[in-house]
Every structure is written in C-alpha cells, then in structure tokens.
Task: inverse folding
C-alpha cells in the first residue's frame, strides 16, 4: 500500500488543481477567464502543476505534518499566483486563508511533536516581516501594493518554521527572483517603473527555499 501513496498524493493534487482556478476567480471577484479555450488550458495546466507539486512534497517530506502544510501552501499559492497574473490582485481574504491554513498545520505539529519553539519563531517572523513590509509600502507607496505586503508576512510564517536560516534564505530567494523578473519586465517594456504582478515570483522563490530546507 505504501508504494501507491505517492501516486495517490499526486492524483489528489490533479483532482484538486482545478479548484485553484475557481478559488482565484471567486477571490478576485472577477469574471472567469475570458476565453473558453484559454480557461480550459489554464485548468489543465493548473491541475498538472498542483499534482506535480503534491508529488514533489511527498518525495521531500513523506507522510509527515509538513506534507499537509506543503499541499495547502501549493493549492492556495497557485490560486494567489493566478489571481495576480490574470486579475492583478492578491485578495486579502485569499492571503489570509493561505496564512491561516499554514498556521493551523504548524499548530497541529506543535501539539503533536512539542515544536512550540518553532511555532513561536514562525509567528514572530511573520509579524516582524509584515511590519517591515508595511513600512516599505508607506515609504514607497508606488513600489508595492497591500497584497504584496500581506503576502510577505504570510511567507515569513512558512519560512520562519525552518528557523533563521530558512527565513533569510527564503526571503533572499523570493526577493531576488522578484527583482530579476522586474528587471526583465522593465527591459522588455523600455520603462523603468513598469508595474508587474510580483506574487508568482515571491511564491516560487519561497517554495523553492522550503524544498531546500
């Protein structure tokens, strides 16, 4: 039976992947993706992506509490990335759900395994990074949006579970990848202040860091 568990995990991701598109549409409060053909392609691609990420999570974490955290983060993270890419929004309700699910799984791990120190550090990291992101947004209101600010705080919760090293590495990779994407967008558009959806690159960088933890 154990030999089939990775494929069961992957299949679950394939089945749940399309829900990420529906959640993104509902949370953004917008109409579905305009073209039926485009929407079908996005649904298929999203299902494949979530299924693949679930499988990667199994291979990395196995049957542990971290697998549940990873699967929740991937499902909600894909929804956030889609909302930012297609609707240029990071809905606060969706960011809050992203964080609440992670906090719930970390709390369960703390109760089961006594990892209260990890939980406290993760929560403290989330509060500190969120406060820093708010300060940056207030100083540079045209540079970042409220959704990005909230997302930084939630990502710090996930990254903080892995301690100082995980937090710094994750923020560095996520911010560095976002800076590279911004540079590419500015170069292609020929405008230095071109706005672009930063959510996908922040999420991708944070997820990559979690896998390296």
Result:
């Amino acid at each position: 039976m154990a030999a089939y568990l990775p494929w069961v995990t992957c299949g679950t991701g394939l089945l749940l992947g399309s829900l990420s598109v529906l959640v993104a549409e509902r949370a953004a409060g917008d109409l579905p993706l305009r073209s039926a053909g485009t929407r079908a392609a996005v649904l298929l691609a999203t299902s494949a992506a979530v299924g693949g990420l679930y499988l990667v999570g199994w291979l990395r974490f196995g049957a542990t509490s971290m697998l549940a955290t990873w699967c929740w983060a991937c499902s909600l993270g894909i929804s956030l990335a889609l909302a930012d890419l297609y609707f240029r929004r990071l809905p606060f309700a969706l960011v809050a759900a992203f964080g609440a699910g992670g906090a719930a799984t970390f709390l369960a791990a703390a109760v089961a395994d006594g990892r209260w120190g990890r939980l406290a550090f993760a929560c403290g990291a989330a509060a500190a990074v969120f406060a820093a992101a708010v300060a940056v947004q207030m100083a540079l209101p045209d540079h970042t949006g409220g959704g990005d600010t909230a997302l930084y705080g939630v990502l710090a919760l996930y990254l903080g579970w892995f301690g100082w090293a995980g937090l710094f590495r994750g923020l560095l990779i996520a911010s560095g990848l976002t800076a590279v994407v911004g540079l590419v967008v500015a170069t292609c558009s020929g405008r230095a202040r071109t706005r672009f959806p930063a959510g996908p690159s922040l999420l991708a960088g944070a997820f990559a860091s979690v896998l390296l933890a």
Q: What stands out?
A: DSSP finds eight helices and no strands in the chain. The two ends are 28 Å apart (CA to CA).
